[in-house]
Design a protein that fits this description.
By secondary structure, the protein is of the alpha/beta class. It has 12 helices and 17 strands.
Length: 338
């Protein structure tokens, strides 16, 4: 994380310089002193908010609040904000404690300068793993932040929570009931956490939040020069037919001869996922298990691309080779069930 440290006094400067010297691979600290900037910190604060992952104010809490108020949007995009008094006694997590990482930053600052970390989020103080932290840790997409907040609040209040997941990871909470299906409503739970990459999932629980794991692997082959927009449209079409969310895409895979195919690269950028390249030898080792095309063999040296690629990426094969306007797609899903 790139952190902007902001100071207003001589003692604050000294703390700021100490943090700069303690920069690590994870926290890269840049120090900005109010009296060394034309127009003061306020004149560059928008730049700092846009360019840095977090801000450490060495000041009174009120200064940080007044400075940051115009730039607060919501917890999914706000930067981490920590406040340290210029005596270096307290390191206070002020804004975006979980998603932005201010709680961890406050702890690191406290450890670095010998200050007491002050964490006020209820779930942390009760030793509860909040839903948003659980999602961040496992790289799950949070479908609705209000639902996530509601379920976390129920956990803080000690309600019994149901947990249904396609994956192995389980949230840490004492009053958790593991559910193996959502069809039969469990009357003992007040709310449910659902971890699934299904686009639509039937259930009868009024209070719930949905987390989408990245567990969908896509093998792809295509004719040379196919536009990225066509590939994106084809992937969305196939996923919709399978009732799968594009947010669940983990990796797209193809053969080495296609590694510079612009359309495939554009699709990976659009879906925010990596592209995995397989060699001809890797494909040949498993291609006997899938449908064969002599044309593909004569063109690139293997009988099939999309199916072997999806298989090698991992998971249960959900489709064979699906042809869509010069594009071949195959889908595999890594899940216990669903």
């Amino acid at each position: 994380m790139k952190i902007a440290c902001i100071s207003f006094t001589q003692k604050g400067k000294e703390i700021g310089e100490k943090l700069v010297k303690s920069s690590s691979e994870y926290y890269i600290i840049h120090h900005f002193s109010n009296d060394e900037i034309d127009g003061g910190i306020k004149s560059i604060l928008l730049f700092l908010v846009m360019e840095y992952d977090g801000l450490v104010f060495i000041s009174a809490t009120g200064i940080a609040v007044r400075f940051m108020t115009p730039y607060i949007i919501n917890k999914t995009v706000d930067p981490a904000v920590v406040v340290v008094d210029d005596e270096g006694i307290f390191s206070i997590s002020l804004l975006s404690g979980h998603i932005g990482g201010a709680n961890k930053l406050a702890q690191w600052v406290g450890h670095t300068i010998g200050a007491i970390p002050v964490i006020t989020t209820a779930s942390d103080n009760r030793g509860i793993q909040s839903v948003d932290l659980f999602a961040i840790k496992n790289n799950y997409y949070m479908e609705n932040m209000e639902d996530v907040k509601d379920i976390t609040a129920m956990m803080v209040n000690g309600d019994t929570i149901g947990f249904y997941s396609e994956m192995d990871e389980i949230i840490k909470y004492d009053k958790l009931l593991l559910l193996d299906n959502l069809k039969n409503k469990n009357l003992n739970v007040q709310g449910v956490i659902i971890v699934s990459s299904q686009e639509q999932i039937d259930h009868t629980y009024e209070k719930h939040c949905k987390l989408i794991p990245k567990n969908i692997n896509i093998g792809i082959g295509c004719r040379k020069g196919i536009e990225g927009s066509r590939i994106i449209k084809a992937i969305n079409y196939l996923l919709k037919n399978l009732n799968l969310s594009p947010k669940g895409i983990k990796t797209i895979g193809t053969i080495k001869v296609k590694e510079h195919e612009i359309g495939i690269i554009e699709a990976c950028r659009y879906f925010n996922c990596p592209l995995k390249i397989f060699t001809i030898d890797e494909i040949k080792k498993v291609e006997q298990n899938f449908s064969k095309s002599q044309f593909v063999k004569d063109t690139i040296g293997v009988y099939s691309v999309s199916e072997p690629s999806a298989y090698l990426l991992g998971g249960k094969m959900l489709t064979g080779k699906v042809k869509i306007n010069g594009i071949t797609l195959s889908i595999a899903k890594e899940a216990k069930y669903g």
